[in-house]
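Lecture notes, unit on binding sites. The following record was shown on slide 14. It pairs a sequence with arginine.
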Amino acid sequence: MNLQRIFSLLITACLLAAFSAAAQDGQLDLSSAGDSLYPELGSSGFDVQHYTIRLQTPMDENAITAEAIITAVATADLEQFNLDLVSLNIDNLTVNGESAEFSRSGSELMILLPQPLSAGDSFEVVIQYHGMPTPTQDPSLGARLGWNFADGLVYVVSEPDGAQTWFPANDHPSDKATFTLEITVPEGFVVAANGVLEETTTQDGQTTFRWEMRQPMATYLATVNIDRYVEFESESAEGVPLRNYLPERYSRFNDRVFGRQGEMVDYFSNIFGPYPFDAYGAVVVDQPLGFALETQTISLFGSSILMGDADDVVAHELAHQWFGNSISLEDWSDIWLNEGFASYAEWLWLEHTEGPDARDAAIAEAYGFMSGDGWQEFGLTNAQIRAELMSMGLTGSPDPDNLFNAAVYYRGGLTLHALRLVVGDDAFFEILRTYAGQYTYGNATTDDFFAIAEAISGRNLEKFKRDWLYVIQIPSIPAMRLFPPNLGDSN
Ligand code: ARG
Ligand code: ZN
């Protein structure tokens, strides 16, 4: 019995987390991408280049049969590596064509390499699997994340940790990759997924849709939506291809709800820099979801979007294509870099369409809410208001069970407007364009953003950053005469 064999037997016998940590030189935790909020997400030691997911689903029950082909590069010398995968059954697993032993513990999948890898080596993992996808419970909003089968339709919303419910993944935005999604469904269903629909073939009553996502994408932005969709194709005035997918029975809503999407793409391209992907559009899921998601190249909306005016959320999800998707987080604690920017983009769209007064009114309203002003009307005492603001969490470091807190969105957006008022319009828009350009298809942190803001404005923004992102008491915006109310003792 060789050493490797003994080692692999140990795997099955030992607690897998301990095994994982001990196997390397003790520095690299293979079972974690090192996220400060969600250490259980992702892995270390390699960098995924491309996922090919070939997946078949019958649509009359919640079941998938799939094959994932993952090409990756080792970033350390490895004898084993980890992926995340929730509950599906693995039928076969090879690395570089050789069958590999693996073991599982919770959502951690540990794979023993048939041949050790050196840092820099490329490798290919092929995993055949099947089963009934089980959505995870959203740590913050209580939604069901991942592959959702409901009433004969499928939708996938995964922020932050749902991707591992339908494919084996290095499930953290710090490891982005290109994707091929090849989805086979009974004839008559339509699959709306990320990127460009390259090929549709029908055989024996089954249709396969091959979608290619050619720019890097974080795993949580991968989406597959299956229903009897009607597709609407168009193009923005500046030539960005657009395609929307609406359920047949809602198709008449397309023009009213998404009618200004093309203008928005061109406006944001003008201020942020070129639209970063091959196409854009929307998919409407025939479920009353309480949120939308900026799934890459095809933002996802629940059917509640169809009621009333949705320009703000349409603009919001579109802006994420630059801020969140093209530029991804390095750590989930910086989520304001996604949500604060997308919220601010709603106000920019308002400014563009209705003028600065409408923008300022929206900003003043958000400031009032985030400062606790006017909450007394709801019968809250000052102490209760302070406690509420406290428990909401900080813009720059939300609690893991409250990732999408209101401060991340609204105070995040206010932070950008306050910055604009401090540095002036020219510097501010140059900062946004430079940030979007410099980190295209990459990852960035709050400090990366402020380094650009300081370089372009020539100001020291250390105190500004701390006061806006990491202190409960909201700063004032003197230029708009916005000041926090006196809520008494803030200790
Ligand atoms: N990024 C989404 C947005 O644009 C938030 C989705 C949060 N929803 C959830 N169920 N986790 O606002
Ligand atoms: Zn958002």
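Take-home: Residues 1-25 have pLDDT under 50 and may be disordered.
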